[in-house]
Amino acid sequence: MEKSSEKDLNRNFIAILLLYMAFFNCNMILSVNIGNLLLYLPETTASGIALLVAFQLLVQIISLLFFGSYVTNITEKYSRKKIFLISNALICIGFFMVAISINFTMFFIFSLIANFSNGAFLPIGFAIIGDSFPPKERGNKFGLMNFALLMGSGGGIIFGGLIGSLGGPIGWRIAYCVAAFLVLTAIIRYSQWGIEVSKGQSEPEFNDLEAANQTYDYKIKFSNFSQILKKKSVIGIYIVVIFTAITTTTMGTWAIYFISMKIDSPFATFIASTLVILTGLGGLFGTIFGGKMGDSLSQKGKVRGRAVLSLF
């Protein structure tokens, strides 16, 4: 397969970034509509929502391991672009079905389906980005992906909150429909701009493997995972990621709901959403400049400095 042009690679990256942003736009609608779900969706309880959030995390972990383990076998028959399109189509369908749920059970099931499909992002979407750009550029690209995560989440909070508040009993349904349409739009864009990137085309080390007629194993195995965890820098990053995920998931889901209950205003949800978004603005600057600083440290040979930087 011929190496893709820089223009095609950048358009492919933008298309993946838009898909990532659209997913988190959908996923954050729940946090600003907990009150609406408790009022207007039959069988909904606070404990049920808490259980849903916990299962979403569990399902994403299982999905990540599934796609990571079997993506090599699947891509022997189908292109990564096709698999990625299908997984994102399931996200779109899942959130659309969430919007028309007749009760919390239906809402619960299709939320998990959408989150399971999102597990393809790391072993497929991020792998495509890694294959598209050399190591010295990846920090900036992955930083932009995190920027897309924050922007998508912020968009879901703002528009999900506004539509949910102004739309009455069906406001949260309209919000999910609009978000699902955004996912569909991003899917269409990826179908136009997405390309099939050769595995390892931007990885210098792969040239040695090809010369020795060896094939790189993309599968995620427990033995590989345990070997990686033996490295101190990886353990440090892993611990930070775990505790950050626990904190941000709890605050991201419940903070707006509980803050809005303390505000005596018809726009309580919007005010609470604004406060939560303001607290996350620092992440936008850290994401962009952190990626660039990491790339700069890597180019100077300061690998340890790059690892330490990622902990902040």
Would you mind describing this structure in some detail?
The chain is mainly alpha-helical. It has one domain (6-212, 221-309): MFS general substrate transporter like domains (Growth Hormone, Chain: A). The chain contains 14 helices and no strands. It has helices at residues 6-27, 34-40, 46-75, 80-99, 104-117, 121-132, 135-166, 171-193, 205-211, 222-228, 232-261, 268-279, 281-299, 303-309. The longest helix has 32 residues, at 135-166. The protein starts with 5 loop residues before the first helix and ends with a helix.
Distance between the termini: 39 Å
Q: What do we call the CATH homologous superfamily?
A: MFS general substrate transporter like domains
Indicate the low-confidence ranges by residue numbers: none
Summing up helix and strand content along with how strands pair, one would put the structural category as: mainly alpha
Tell me the domain tally.
Answer: 1
* CATH topology annotation: Growth Hormone, Chain: A
Residues in helices, as a percent range: over 70%
Order of SSEs, N→C?
A: HHHHHHHHHHHHHH
The biggest beta sheet reads:
none
Q: Total number of helical segments?
A: 14
CATH class label: Mainly Alpha
Could you tell me the strand content as a percent range?
under 5%
User: Over all CA atoms, what is the radius of gyration?
Assistant: 20 Å
Question: Kindly state the mean pLDDT as a whole number?
Answer: 79
Structure summary, number of beta strands: 0
Query: What CATH architecture do you see?
Result: Up-down Bundle
Name the overall outline.
Answer: globular
